[in-house]
Write a structure and sequence with these properties.
The structure holds 2 protein chains of 2 kinds. By secondary structure, chain A is mainly β. Helices cover 0% and strands 50% of the residues of chain A. Chain A is built from no helices and 12 strands. In chain A, strands 2, 5, 6, 10, 11 and 12 form a 6-stranded mixed sheet that branches. The chains are: A mainly beta, B mainly beta. Chains A and B meet through strand 5, strand 6 and strand 10 of A and strand 5, strand 9 and strand 10 of B.
């Protein structure tokens, strides 16, 4: 079935370090892919998205490329800041009528230390 | 200001009581969702509604009920049948590109 597998955390990095959070997916159709971020005590916010193969989503210095050949959508940032500390969720949506086909990963907690 | 409101932010109830969590949106989105989040875990889908007067069970609907009488509102009732109701509850809508828009959440504690 359709699913998302996300790198387990927690991840702890020093400020200005390079970040990669891995996300791979299994999908029967052609999904749209998303990264969401959740700051402590808040709801999730959309960070970036990609709707077709080879699309690159980017926002706030974060990037992820929709790789159909490796079924991946890894999140990257070149230089993390303390304010990036949060939980990051990978998600996919399959377009299908009459059913909910939205799947979230289990989340990866990132802590950035000064 | 467009968005999703959930109230209250913190809610305390005694075991055996039903409690209703509010979710209101002014984004004019058709689809709305309720999720449950437990500490250190991902989101689990409770119920969703793709249109007014229609809703579907998610993965963990037992012990919960919903209604969708208006496009703007999708309240969730946590009944006494829910065995472990203490959790963080998130309401969301879905935009035209399948993006989810989340409310700030309600933290329910049942003792």
């Amino acid at each position: 079935g359709d699913s998302v597998t996300q790198m387990e955390g927690p991840v702890t990095l020093s400020e200005e370090a390079f970040l990669t959070i891995n996300c791979t997916y299994t999908a029967t159709g052609y999904p749209s892919l998303f990264w969401y971020v959740q700051y402590p005590g808040e709801g999730l916010q959309l960070l970036l998205k990609a709707t077709k193969a080879d699309d690159k989503g980017s926002n706030k210095g974060f990037e992820a490329t929709y790789r159909k050949e490796t079924t991946s959508f890894h999140l990257e940032k070149g230089s993390v800041q303390v304010s990036d500390s949060a939980v990051y969720f990978c998600a996919l949506k399959i377009e299908k009528t009459g059913a909910n086909n939205l799947f979230f990963g289990t989340g990866t907690r990132l802590t950035v230390i000064p | 200001d467009g968005g999703i409101t959930q109230s209250p932010k913190y809610l305390f109830r005694k075991e055996g009581q039903n409690v209703t969590l509010s979710c209101e949106q002014n984004l004019n989105h058709d689809a709305m969702y309720w999720y449950r989040q437990d500490p250190g875990q991902g989101l689990r889908l409770i119920y969703y509604s793709q249109i007014v007067n229609d809703f579907q069970k998610g993965d963990i609907a037992e012990g919960y009920s919903v209604s969708r009488e208006k496009k703007e509102s999708f309240p969730l009732t946590v009944t006494s049948a829910q065995k472990n109701p203490t959790a963080f509850y998130l309401c969301a809508t879905e935009g035209q590109d399948y993006e989810q828009y989340f409310g700030p959440g309600t933290r329910l504690t049942v003792t």
